[in-house]
């Protein structure tokens, strides 16, 4: 699926803010509620922090967002190369990061994205109009 | 870069020597010597911006660029001392650097006010609507644009306002009951040895927010209601708590 937005920034914590702001802005356009935007924003921070904390060197951080039918799908990915079988973690569901992410988003998946290790987040808007 | 002229003791350069050098511009050797002469001023100004999250080396680099710009643009005919002109240019360059990095040096008054009115609107609208409001609804209520509302939300998460961080001692009626549940929930976390100590060290309110959000699945609005604090405050505490946990996990793991 072609994302509505694709952002490529250096794999540095300073840029996470940019990704967060763009995601929040898109969600606002979809009439997301305050709570869900805050959740999405925290989830993006947490996903980026998780990926940037991995031991394999990454140079770029990529965010792809698709927004449709009151749902935002955001995939954060780095170009790190963990080699075969090192990502996603075997017991992903036992990490604090996953617990937090799955609490914030409706769906949180550690997966292998286009460039490398990725986190997929799906968040529903939460407003019934 | 070191001053080529170690005899120069003043941080603002030697005015006479600098007049001579400006008269020789655009001679590159004169330009270099001027840059060296005023480098201590640039470093001094860079140091004044240190401690805001940027490495000193980077700040000195930015200040040095500002200094070169000042040298190139300075017009001795104007009657302004070069050190005065250079200070303004270098400080401008340093401020712009922070702005470009997306960091404000402090939260501007406009944003503080926007933050407060957004916070109030979220609380009021949540009660009126029985659910959290959308950005559009907050914008209509506050008279701000949607972009301004988003900006205020981002600001609330990015900066910790110390006045809001004062600990509260209010004990809710359900407090005792909840503490029991909390203990059980965190028991489950004990297995994650890297996280447990960090969670145990959290202030009580932060622990409670973490528990309510991730173990009882309450929304930020519901937590705000339960604890009697604003949604923005919940959001800020939650984002800071997660950051702290991440840091401590990173330290031990």
Task: Offer a concise description of the structure.
Chain A is of the alpha+beta class.
Order of helices and strands of chain B: HHHHHHHHHHHH
Total number of helices of chain B: 12
| Total number of beta strands of chain A | 5
How much of the sequence lies in strands of chain A comes to: 25-35%
C-alpha-based Rg of chain A, rounded: 14 Å
Estimate the helix proportion of chain B, in percent. Answer: 55-70%
Cα(first) to Cα(last) distance of chain A is: 28 Å
The average pLDDT value of chain A, as a whole number, equals 87
Question: What structural class do the secondary elements of chain A suggest?
Answer: alpha+beta
Q: Can you walk through the features of this model?
A:
The complex is a heterodimer of chains A (129) and B (253). Chain A is an alpha+beta fold and 129 residues long. Chain A has helices at residues 16-29, 34-52, 96-104, and strands spanning 5-10, 60-68, 71-78, 107-112, 117-124. In chain A, helix 1 runs antiparallel to helix 2 (34-52) and helix 2 runs antiparallel to helix 3 (96-104). The relative contact order of chain A is 0.23. Chain B has 253 residues and is an all-alpha fold. Chain B has 12 helices and no strands. Chain A binds chain B through residues 14, 17-18, 20-21, 24-25, 28, 31-39, 41-42, 45-46, 49, 53, 94-97, 99-100, 103, 126-128, and chain B through 101-102, 122, 126, 131-136, 138, 146-147, 149-150, 153-154, 157-158, 191-192, 194-195, 213-214, 217, 219-221, 231, 235, 238-239, 242-243, 245-246, 249-250.
Secondary-structure blueprint:
The complex is a heterodimer of chains A (129) and B (253).
Chain A: E1 5-10, H1 16-29, H2 34-52, E2 60-68, E3 71-78, H3 96-104, E4 107-112, E5 117-124
Antiparallel strand pairs in A: 1-2, 2-3, 3-5, 4-5
Helix pairs in contact in A: 1-2, 2-3
Chain B: H1 15-24, H2 28-48, H3 56-73, H4 82-100, H5 109-129, H6 135-142, H7 146-158, H8 175-190, H9 196-201, H10 204-214, H11 220-227, H12 231-252
Helix pairs in contact in B: 1-2, 2-3, 2-4, 3-4, 5-6, 5-7, 6-7, 7-12, 10-12, 11-12
């Amino acid at each position: 699926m072609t994302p509505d937005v694709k952002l490529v920034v250096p794999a540095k914590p300073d840029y996470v803010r940019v990704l967060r702001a763009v995601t929040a802005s898109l969600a606002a356009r979809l009439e997301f509620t305050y709570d869900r935007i805050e959740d999405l924003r925290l989830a993006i921070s947490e996903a980026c922090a998780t990926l940037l904390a991995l031991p394999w060197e990454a140079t770029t951080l990529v965010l792809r967002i698709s927004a449709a039918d009151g749902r935002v799908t955001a995939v954060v990915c780095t170009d790190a190369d963990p080699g075969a079988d090192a990502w996603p973690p075997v017991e992903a569901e036992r990490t604090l990061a996953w617990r937090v992410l799955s609490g914030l988003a409706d769906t949180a998946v550690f997966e292998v994205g286009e460039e490398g290790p990725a986190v997929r987040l799906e968040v529903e808007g939460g407003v019934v109009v | 870069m070191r001053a080529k002229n170690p005899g120069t003791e003043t941080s603002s350069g030697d005015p006479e020597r600098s007049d001579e050098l400006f008269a020789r511009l655009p001679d590159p050797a004169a330009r270099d010597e001027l840059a060296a002469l005023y480098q201590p001023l640039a470093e001094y100004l860079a140091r004044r911006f240190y401690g805001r999250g940027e490495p000193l080396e980077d700040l000195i680099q930015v200040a040095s660029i500002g200094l070169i710009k000042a040298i190139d643009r300075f017009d001795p005919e104007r009657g302004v001392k070069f050190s005065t002109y250079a200070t303004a240019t270098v400080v401008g360059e340093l401020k712009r650097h922070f702005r470009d990095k997306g960091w404000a040096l402090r939260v501007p008054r406009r944003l503080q006010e926007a933050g407060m009115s957004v916070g109030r609107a979220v609380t009021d609208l949540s009660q009126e609507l029985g659910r959290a409001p959308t950005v559009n609804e907050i914008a209509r209520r506050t008279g701000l644009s949607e972009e301004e509302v988003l900006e205020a939300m981002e600001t609330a998460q990015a900066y910790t306002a110390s006045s809001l961080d004062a600990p509260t001692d209010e004990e809710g009626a359900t407090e005792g009951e909840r503490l029991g549940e909390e203990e059980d929930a965190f028991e489950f976390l004990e297995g994650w040895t890297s996280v447990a100590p960090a969670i145990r060290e959290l202030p009580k309110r932060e622990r409670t927010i973490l528990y309510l959000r991730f173990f009882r699945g309450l929304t930020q609005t519901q937590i705000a209601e339960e604890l009697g604090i604003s949604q923005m405050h919940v959001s800020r505490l939650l984002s800071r708590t997660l950051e702290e946990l991440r840091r401590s996990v990173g330290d031990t793991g």
